């Protein structure tokens, strides 16, 4: 038996969720102050109090201890653009100008596969450094950008979902494909990568503004031919965008109806933003099981608006939380939850620490239909997890010393935490990021 196959116990405080804490309260999660997570062959074997679990195991079993740390399932990001790493923190524009002035010129570089590979490797290491182990990712219009991404993800054995952007109008000519070429490229990528190891594919029309009806029809055709792939796009992020969509599709009932007409709604369909949705659109989200991806840092940064997640809950619209780098301003899901709390406050509501971490783990897994694989420490799940440090900075340590309850400790972690708070990240039971060791141990090299 190799070292990789031997069972290992990870001992620390451990938290994971069984359901939504806003619905089921204390029954929604399990917390072990001195917990033991047992991993073998990349899967979760057992979880419980360390004293009970260790008593059942052989005396010579390997135990990795993280004192004063918290183990949670690997965090999940449901909307992010890997080609936009270099346009993060670009000044002064709202959505449509930001795309034209910053994003489109940056994405042109991804026609060079070597360039795409370099950015893909950097991007994945940044995610892992922040405790994020799964993401729903946009490539560029270039097929090779997605090939480069999947190759880098396969090397790390991360469970990632990615897709080639489909875009044939209202963008620079150097970034436009055609309905037929976008279909063929996407089809070849699906055949090569969907369900290959831990890789999954998402059909990816950028948004209604950049696709003709013919291209959206081709996207729908892919969804029909491959019913278990994902679909990702944008909706109702910016009021000028919504108005432009109405001009381009005057016969549509609303923005969502554009996608609905081409069969793009369903339980694996994730629509980023959804800030300015109408009641009719909420109804169709509910009826089809489609979900909204809440991107608080980019919504604030681009001045797009404040998504009211309490309204989505009242309307029974499924939603998740995401970074949306590079419109979003941090790879850290902790920082993203920090901003989600503030947006919710501005809408006159509250977002608890428990609900926040539920969203970043099991909640996001559920919106991706992956809760049978990731998002919790259910026996048999893939052993992706992050180790969070309660004393990662002097300020964090001081604040934590004053916290009396689990909720207070978690809230301080969310508000004050960033990549420094992630002590280690594991993918399928393998250490892929260790904050306190050299960068040689990170990513695919460990």
UniProtKB/TrEMBL annotation:
<keyword id="KW-0479">Metal-binding</keyword>
<dbReference type="InterPro" id="IPR014311">
    <property type="entry name" value="Guanine_deaminase"/>
</dbReference>
<dbReference type="InterPro" id="IPR011059">
    <property type="entry name" value="Metal-dep_hydrolase_composite"/>
</dbReference>
<keyword id="KW-0378">Hydrolase</keyword>
<feature type="domain" description="Amidohydrolase-related">
    <location>
        <begin position="71"/>
        <end position="432"/>
    </location>
</feature>
<dbReference type="Pfam" id="PF01979">
    <property type="entry name" value="Amidohydro_1"/>
</dbReference>
<dbReference type="InterPro" id="IPR051607">
    <property type="entry name" value="Metallo-dep_hydrolases"/>
</dbReference>
<protein>
    <recommendedName>
        <fullName>Guanine deaminase</fullName>
        <ecNumber>3.5.4.3</ecNumber>
    </recommendedName>
</protein>
<dbReference type="InterPro" id="IPR032466">
    <property type="entry name" value="Metal_Hydrolase"/>
</dbReference>
<comment type="similarity">
    <text>Belongs to the metallo-dependent hydrolases superfamily. ATZ/TRZ family.</text>
</comment>
<comment type="function">
    <text>Catalyzes the hydrolytic deamination of guanine, producing xanthine and ammonia.</text>
</comment>
<keyword id="KW-0862">Zinc</keyword>
<dbReference type="InterPro" id="IPR006680">
    <property type="entry name" value="Amidohydro-rel"/>
</dbReference>
<comment type="pathway">
    <text>Purine metabolism; guanine degradation; xanthine from guanine: step 1/1.</text>
</comment>
């Amino acid at each position: 038996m190799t070292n990789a196959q031997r069972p290992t116990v990870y001992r620390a405080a451990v938290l994971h969720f069984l359901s939504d804490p806003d619905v089921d309260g204390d029954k929604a999660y399990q917390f072990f102050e001195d917990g033991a997570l047992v991993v073998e062959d990349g899967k979760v074997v057992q979880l419980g109090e360390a004293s009970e679990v260790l008593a059942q195991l052989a005396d010579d079993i390997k135990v990795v201890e993280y004192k004063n740390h918290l183990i949670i399932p690997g965090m999940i990001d449901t909307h992010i653009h890997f080609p936009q790493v270099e346009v993060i923190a670009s000044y002064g524009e709202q959505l449509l100008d930001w795309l034209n002035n910053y994003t489109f010129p940056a994405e042109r570089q991804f026609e060079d596969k070597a360039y795409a590979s370099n950015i893909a490797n950097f991007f994945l290491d940044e995610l892992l450094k922040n405790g994020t182990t799964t993401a729903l990712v946009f490539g560029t219009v270039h097929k090779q950008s997605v090939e480069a991404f999947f190759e880098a993800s396969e090397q790390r054995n991360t469970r990632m979902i990615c897709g080639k952007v489909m875009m044939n109008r209202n963008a620079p000519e150097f970034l436009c494909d055609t309905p037929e070429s976008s279909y063929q490229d996407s089809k070849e990528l699906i055949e090569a990568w969907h369900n290959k190891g831990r890789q999954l594919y998402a059909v990816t029309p950028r948004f209604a503004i950049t696709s003709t009806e013919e291209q959206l029809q081709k996207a729908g055709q892919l969804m029909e031919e491959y019913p278990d792939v994902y679909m990702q796009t944008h909706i109702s992020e910016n009021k000028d965008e919504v108005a432009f969509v109405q001009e381009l599709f005057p016969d549509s009932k609303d923005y969502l109806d554009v996608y609905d007409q081409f069969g793009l709604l369903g339980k694996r369909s994730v629509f980023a933003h959804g800030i300015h949705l109408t009641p009719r659109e909420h109804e169709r989200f509910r009826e089809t099981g489609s979900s909204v991806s809440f991107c608080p840092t980019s919504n604030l940064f681009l001045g797009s608006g404040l998504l009211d997640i309490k309204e989505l809950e009242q309307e029974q619209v499924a939603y998740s939380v995401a970074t949306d780098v590079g419109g979003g301003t941090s790879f850290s899901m902790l920082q993203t939850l920090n901003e989600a709390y503030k947006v919710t406050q501005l809408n006159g509501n509250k977002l608890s620490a428990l609900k926040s971490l539920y969203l970043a783990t099991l909640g996001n897994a559920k919106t991706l239909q992956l809760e049978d694989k990731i998002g919790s420490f259910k026996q048999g799940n893939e052993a992706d997890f992050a180790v969070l440090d309660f004393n990662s900075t002097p300020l964090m340590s001081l604040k934590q010393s004053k916290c009396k309850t689990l909720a207070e400790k978690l809230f301080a972690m969310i508000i004050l935490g960033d990549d420094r708070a992630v002590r280690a990240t594991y993918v399928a039971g393998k250490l892929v990021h260790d904050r306190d060791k050299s960068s040689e141990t990170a990513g695919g090299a460990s």
